[in-house]
Design brief:
Layout (H helix, E strand, L loop, with lengths): L2 H13 L6 H8 L3 H13 L4 E4 L3 E4 L12 H14 L7 H14 L3 H11 L17 H13 L1 E9 L4 E15 L2 E8 L4 E6 L3 E10 L8 H13 L2 E8 H7 L8 E7 L2 E8 L2 H8 L6 E5 L1 H18 L1
Antiparallel strand pairs: 1-2, 3-4, 3-7, 4-5, 5-6, 8-10, 8-11, 9-10
Helix pairs in contact: 2-3, 4-5, 4-6, 10-11
């Protein structure tokens, strides 16, 4: 991106947000903080009314607007691809909202871009894997949680844990909504467990406001949640297994959901390295591959697979 395009993009980025930090701009455009300051100064000298608030960032003074923004065909194609990706989240109403927004964008496109988009629309499709679970989530929960995050309101939820087959009542400080695999999660500070937790949204049975508000500078933050999650990931245990050649075609993308890190071809198959937080779950997953997989390490995993195999043998015998 040349400097002229970057300056224009910066104005659009600033105009779409209440406050933007130098760090935000630096990371978004891949430039140094020094270059960000230089670009902001150039925009101010060109007459763009950019203000700043100490500790919060920069903003465009209310009332200033760019001329109507137009999209090129690459941006239009990206928006259409985004609409297809959003279709799987129809239960949260995100899909409907995205489609409505795209319809408004279509209405202001030039005829050439409209024709391009109409043609492309007929040639972009999404397909789900045959074994992909379609999770239904009451869209009202999603909207409720969105509002709670924005308004910094503590929520009371009834949460179902399938592993313990029980419901628990939790007061949660909502920090954000996250996508992991095929599911939406609420990231928050659980006051019952006094720790950061992730709650799968489709497992929230009941929910309500508590009437309690978080401070403007809350004690618990999404940034701290992310840092803790990163630390936990660094504590994952390394697993090395070898899949026989005939098993590889059946494995497909499953490895990416089990903490796959790397792989290399070896005599008779492929040796793969994973990082896992649960030897137990990993051992149970390996059972489905029968004698088509061999455990190299750790010893604990090999022993657990042997124990589970014996249990299965005794059970089916």
């Amino acid at each position: 991106m040349n400097r002229t395009d970057r300056l224009t993009a910066m104005i659009i980025y600033l105009q779409g947000r209440s406050r933007v930090t130098v760090k935000d701009l630096s990371e978004r455009y891949g430039i140094s903080s020094r270059t960000v300051y230089r670009d902001l100064r150039a925009l101010q000298e060109a007459g763009v009314p950019i203000g700043s608030e100490e500790g919060k960032g920069y903003f465009i003074v209310k009332g200033y607007h760019l001329p109507p923004v137009m999209f090129d065909k690459d941006e239009v194609a990206a928006l259409l691809a985004g609409e297809r990706l959003m279709e799987k989240w129809s239960e949260t109403k995100l899909s409907q909202s995205y489609s409505a927004a795209l319809d408004k964008i279509r209405s202001v496109l030039h005829s050439r871009e409209k024709e391009y988009l109409d043609t492309l629309d007929q040639h972009i499709k999404t397909f789900s894997y045959a074994d992909e679970r379609q999770v239904e989530t009451d869209y009202r929960i999603f909207v409720f949680l969105q509002d709670a995050v924005v308004n910094k309101e503590v929520v009371a939820i009834e949460y179902y844990s399938p592993y313990k087959d029980q419901y628990t009542q939790r007061d949660v400080e909502p920090l954000g909504l996250l996508i992991r695999g095929n599911y939406w999660y609420l990231a928050g500070w659980c006051r019952l467990r006094t720790d950061y937790r992730m709650f799968r949204v489709d497992r929230i049975e009941n929910y309500k406001k508590t009437g309690k508000k978080l401070a403007d500078a809350p004690e618990h933050t999404l940034q701290e949640f992310s840092e803790q999650s990163l630390r936990e990931e660094q504590d994952l245990e390394e697993v090395v297994v070898q899949f026989d050649e005939e098993m590889i075609r059946y494995l497909g993308d499953q490895k990416h959901y089990r903490g796959w890190v790397s792989e290399e071809k070896v005599d008779g198959g492929v040796q793969m390295t994973f990082l896992t937080s649960s030897i137990e779950y990993f051992a149970r997953w390996l059972l489905m591959w029968g004698n088509g997989v061999t455990v190299h390490q750790p010893k604990e995993l090999k022993e657990r697979v042997c124990e589970l195999s014996k249990e299965l043998y005794q059970h089916h015998r």
